[in-house]
Amino acid sequence: MNAFWTETDAAPPATQASRAHAPAAGREAAERAAHEAHKLEKRLCRQVGQAIMDYHMIEEGDRVMVCVSGGKDSYGMLDILLKMQQRAPIRFELIAVNLDQKQPGFPDHILPAYLEQLGVPFHIETQDTYSIVKKVIPEGKTMCSLCSRLRRGILYRVADELKVTKIALGHHRDDMLQTFFLNMFFGGKLKGMPPKLVSDDGGHVVIRPLANVAEKDLVRWAEHREFPIIPCTLCGSQENLQRKQIGNMLRDWEKQYPGRIESMFTALQNVVPSHLMDTQLHDFEAVRATGMADADGDTAFDLESFTLPTVGGFPMRIL
Length: 319
Ligand code: SF4
Prior knowledge:
Blueprint: H1 16-19, H2 24-54, E1 63-67, H3 72-87, E2 93-100, H4 110-118, E3 122-126, H5 129-136, H6 144-161, E4 166-168, H7 173-187, E5 196-198, E6 205-207, H8 215-225, H9 241-256, H10 260-268, E7 306-311, E8 314-318
Parallel strand pairs: 1-2, 1-4, 2-3, 4-6
Antiparallel strand pairs: 5-6, 7-8
Helix pairs in contact: 2-3, 2-8, 3-8, 7-9
């Protein structure tokens, strides 16, 4: 893989404001907005490029099925992947796929019109999973687990029919951290949401090109690009309460100690198996004194201390 994935030579994007001949009073604000949008675009391209490169997500000749739901994340993923495709020295195809689950009020004209105007190949799969889920799940119970199981099966089948080599999903950094804490708090496992993994049916490679991207940046990008967002509450199901709680917890931590999310995310990429307790990951039986000093060795009686990012100009230290 080459460094081109992370080169960020994107041309400044035209914003709504800069498109018009703005009056003098508004020109400065429009220029500032255009500059901010340009910076954001560069950051998104760099972060997506870095993830593609680090995890070998896309290779020459790949045919990538980009799952588009009509939400800000998948719109953002498709948008950035299209930019990467234009400048990549390798050739790969993108095909946008949407599953219309026949939820009441789903505006089924929005996505086809948007994708047609983009000029990207696309496929809309229509399957009335909504009726099945409604029939099977008792009133008032969460429908999400059956709904997503059905959706997964359909998307795998579509991936086979379209002969794609990768399935791209729009999960971002915050989704991945939430999954990590959900697994730890409720599943008793140190396990996150991987940037690249074989699907549970063993038949597909799933990639998450937004792995390094913060949700707040996707919100801003969706506003800037004016994506035609389709609301995700059409099915009337309750949101996953546990995920919501974890999301709130992470946001509160970040508010209290700015930089904590970044630090936790970095930690997912810096695992030290010898300092955990999984006997499958580390051979504790083979541990012997080496006689060599090692900064990563046990500090015996001293508990480690950490320097947190500065808050209000003061560095925080905790034990
Ligand atoms: S929120 Fe609705 S559409 Fe989404 S997984 Fe749950 S039941 Fe399915």
